[in-house]
Specification:
Strand content: 5-15%
Number of helices: 5
Order of helices and strands: HHEHHEH
Distance between the termini: 27 Å
Strand order of the largest sheet: 1-2
Helix content: 25-40%
Number of strands: 2
Radius of gyration: 15 Å
Length: 96
């Protein structure tokens, strides 16, 4: 839970951010709580074909069930970061 809070902290300067750790089936719980949200942001590993058929797609299920807009981002966001120095500095400039 601490790691989740640390990820959300830079956003809290400009946005009203709520983070929650939920128990249950991921897609169902996120979609159920989307009724009280303005936006759901969810990562995806980008599996396609057989991998997705075997593993399912939480992001896809949330998109189909959500009561609000859903933003899907790659789970590995390291390619968005310029370098570690910018992460430690001004967080608004950390993304390309």
């Amino acid at each position: 839970y601490e790691r989740l809070g640390a990820l959300a902290e830079p956003l809290e300067e400009d946005l009203d951010v709520t983070t929650k750790v939920l128990a249950g089936r991921a897609a169902k719980e996120v979609a159920r709580r989307s009724k009280h949200a303005d936006l759901v942001v969810i990562p995806t590993h980008g599996h396609t074909g057989l991998d997705r058929a075997l593993l399912g797609s939480v992001a896809e299920s949330v998109i189909r069930r959500s009561a609000c807009p859903v933003m899907v981002l790659p789970a590995d966001r390291s390619h968005f970061l310029r370098d570690e120095e910018e992460i430690a500095g001004d967080s608004t400039e950390a993304y390309a």
